Amino acid sequence: MAVGVFDSGIGGLTVLDAVTRRLPDLPLVYLGDNAHAPYGVRTHDDIFNLTCAAVERLWAEGCDLVILACNTASAAALKRMQETWVPKDKRVLGVFVPMIEALTERQWGDNSPPREVAVKHVALFATPATVASRAFQRELAFRAIGVDVEAQPCGGVVDAIEQGDEILAEALVRSHVEALKRRMPHPEAAVLGCTHYPLMEAVFQDALGEGVKVYSQANLVAESLADYLTRRPEMLGTGTESKFLTTGDPKAVSSKSTQFLRRRIEFQAV
Ligand code: DGL
Question: Which sites bind substrate (predicted)?
Answer without folding.
Answer: 7-8, 39-40, 71-72, 195-196
